Structures are given as C-alpha cells and as structure tokens.
Amino acid sequence: MRDDDILGWLLEPDDPAVRHAALRDLLDRPADDAERAAALRAAMASDPIAAILAAQQPGGWWVKPGPGYATKYRGTVWQVIFLDQLGADGSDARIRRACAYVLEHSQTSIGAFGASGRLAGAPPPSTAIHCLNGNLLRALIGLGWLDDERVTRSIDWQARTITGEGVERWYASGTSGPLFGCAANERLPCAWGAVKALLGLARIPAERRTSLVVRAIDAGVGFLLGHDPAAADYPAGWGNARPSGSWFTLGFPSGYVADILQNLEVLCELGHGADPRLAAAVEWLLSKQDAKGRWRNAYAYNGKTWVDIEQQGRPSRWVTLRACVVLRDALH
User: Fold this and answer.
1) Distance between start and end Cα atoms, the chain
2) Furthest CA-CA distance within the chain
3) What is the reported pLDDT for 2?
C-alpha cells in the first residue's frame, strides 16, 4: 500500500476521531482549520468518545467518587487519559468537569497523582507513581490545564523525582527512588514509568520548561537511550531475566504499559528521532507492517473499557497513525 493510500484510510470519515488526529498530527492542520474542526465535532458526537462521556456521572466522575484509579480501565483517571489520547475537545463542559474532578480528588499532598481506589479522601503520598502521574500530566496539559497551579505542582514533583533534587522522602510502596525507581520493579528504574513521565513533560512547550524540567528530560532521555529500545533490556526486578512481552505488543489505547512504539514516540517528540540508537527500533517497527502497510492492534483492552475502541488483532487506524508519525520524524 502506498503512503497516500494509508493516509486516505486514516482520513476516512467513518472514524472521525482518527480523521481528526491524522489532520492534526500528520497534516499539521491548525485547530481552526475547517476540516479539522468538523472532524472534531463529529468525533465528539461518535463512539468511542460519546460512549465514554455518556457513562460519566453528573459530578464529573466514573464508576465511583474518589481518586478514580479503580476500576481499571473504567475509573475516572483512565477516562481523562483515554479522552486525551482520542483527541477529545478539552473545551467541552463534560471534559472540563472531569479534569477538575481529577485535580480536586486524585492528587496527593506531595503534588503527584496517586493510584488509589478509595472512595473518599485524597490518595496518600505512598500511592504516587511515575506512570500515572505522567499519563495524567500529558492528558491535563493536552486538555488545556497547563496553567493550573495543581498541574504545576505535579510537574515539579515529576521533575524532582527524576533528578532526585529536593525530595524529602521516598515512599517504598510507590515511587521508591530517583530516575524512575519504582516499588513494582523492586525499586529499580522502571522504563514504562520513564516513558509515561517523559510524555507528560514533553507536552510542556519548550519555551515554558524550567531548568529543572530540562534536566529531568535530559536524564530521562539518557536513561531510555542508555539501552537498546528495540531490545527493551531495561532494568527488571524480581528476578526477571527477559523484558516484558508487552514491550513488543503494539496497541491502543495506552494505560500504564508502554511498548516500543510509545518509547519511539516520546523520543521523537523530544527531538531525538534521528538518533542512530533508534535505528534498530525503527526497523523493528517497519517489520510489523502487514502486506497493506498497516499495523495491527494487539493490545486493545477489549471488554475492559466503556466501549471497545478497536478490535483485538485487527488492522488498527490508531496504531498505524502512531507509527506513521514516528516514521515521519525518524526517517525524514
């Protein structure tokens, strides 16, 4: 399949959310472009975005009130993350209500967002983890909340826990040390957490990044490029001698798990697409195309979300779009 055939497939009107994202991310259409604006309006009125918003409670939450980590992947924090990944309109009143709810109920006293399923009260500091904080940072910034003081606090926590600067205490049940140390990885640096954290920081416009954020990004990029992204041979705790198979399983949407493509995405977004250390990962990505030049969704979260976004194992517009953006940045 030729490149223009793939683009035509991504722009078909039967999936307006993908069409909107392709106009934005591949064709660089501005927000006020008539075609892009029409695609966004159609996406907001169609599944999966419409189904997610239909399940929202009037108070702004999903499933149950509280910090919103449970249940996976139907709780409140996941909907904010997925709505951003789907390119939803951050000015929509329902989405603003959801973001405000997360900022009010999901942030710990130390600034990070916490992975807590409790019904009431702020999540304790011991629940702060890189992957959730990075995911929510990216979503909240993408949905228009960069100037909120609570987002600023989350950014500061994220950067300081990467560099180790000025952190008074590490919590062994959550983030347990600098440079993405994580209790779930036997306190070793977690590359999944690194990818998510850097995706969050990458959303901050370059001119608005503090020197602390720049140092954190540099440290994170150094960590990810200090291993072969194609091999994903990052530190693995609990006696694991081989990388998780999830690194090699491309999918959409994306929760706390990262894959090789998402690793490439954040490194390209931060300006490292031409780094020769990405060559093997780019070749691996190209090898996953089918005969028509598309990529399949092998991690679709079917049955776990409010609505199935794509079908497991089928050619995926979302994964194909993600791959095309990376290849454009890495090969041109």
Assistant:
1) 19
2) 55
3) 62
pLDDT surpassing 50 at residue 188: yes
Enter the DSSP assignment of 187: T
> How many whole angstroms separate alpha carbon 153 and alpha carbon 162?
14
Instruction: Give the pLDDT mean for 66-87.
Output: 97
The domain over range 47-331 is classified in CATH as 1.50.10: yes
DSSP state letter for 184? G
Spatial contact of 97 and 89, defined as CB atoms under 8 Å apart = no
Contact call for residues 136 and 107 (beta carbons, < 8 A): no
How long, in residues, is the chain? Answer: 332
Q: What is the full DSSP assignment across 238-283? A: TT--S--GGGG---SS--S---HHHHHHHHHHTT-TT-GGGHHHHH
> Which of 242, 162, 155 shows the shortest CA–CA distance to 204?
155
pLDDT in tens, 270-292: 999 999 999 999 999 999 999 99
Binned at pLDDT 50, 70 and 90, residue 1 comes out as very low
Q: What residues have CB less than 8 Å from 83, skipping those under 6 apart?
A: 49, 52, 53, 95, 98, 139, 143
Instruction: Enter the tokens of residue 98.
Output: 């959801």
Q: How far is CA 195 from CA 2, 59, 258, 262, 312, in A?
A: 31, 31, 7, 7, 23
